[in-house]
Amino acid sequence: MQSLPQAVSELVHDGDVVALEGFTHLIPFAAGHEIIRQGRRDLTLVRMTPDLVYDQMIGAGCASKLVFSWGGNPGVGSLHRMRDALGAGWPVPLQIEEHSHAGMANRYVAGASGLPFAVLRGYAGTELPEHTDTISTVTCPFTGEELAAVKALNPDVSIVHAQRADRAGNVQFWGILGVQKEAVLAAERAIVTVEEIVDELTPVPGAVVLPHWVLDAVAVAPGGAAPSYAHGYYDRDNAAYRAWDKVSRDREAFSVWLKDLKEKSS
Questions:
Q1: Quick one: average pLDDT of 77-101?
Q2: Please, what is the end-to-end C-alpha distance for the chain in angstroms?
Q3: pTM of the predicted model, to two decimals?
Q4: What are the DSSP E strand ranges found in 40-186?
């Protein structure tokens, strides 16, 4: 166990490929904010569904590239800091690499499995393969069918949030699950923030347990997924998502938000 500032300081470096995963809930906002505070730069940010946390990190100048399959403020609208970086290069220019959800998920699975690529039926009728060098085709040796192939995704560091960990560093999470397990297993290094430390991980239906030996750091961060939710702990703060739309539209308002964030300790 270690503090979140220590984990980020030791394991997240300038120029890294960084994945912050969590679908609908358990989004690792606290970790993203700590990366902003520590001033990381030139990151390739990877996430199936970039939302507020990546809009904030992009606006703070942490990212030079975004690898994703959908981006927006869920239920509200666009990511305006992302749009500003793409359109005007503010605060720094941003490159993008776009995939389908299935393509991104399969890339994580290939990375977690130690395979060089994954095969799927997808991308037919789209122009993504023409613009994305991590999408190709492969011919099935058994049927001769041409299938889509996507390059394995192996982040330098993956960061996820979970409900709890035991004192040995084993992590348990449940609820709506995305690709957190695969992102962790595919990464060179892994950080997990948790709501609490418990003596025993009691069984929960549908729960996933990440054993301590696949993790590099576990940090206690109560409320670490807010304003998203942590199933069984707190609800989604819908007002915060709506409020972000106004903040993110204006560079000056965002700069005030960023200054306030940097002055807070994690």
A1: 96
A2: 16
A3: 0.96
A4: 43-47, 63-68, 95-98, 117-120, 135-139, 146-151, 157-166, 171-173
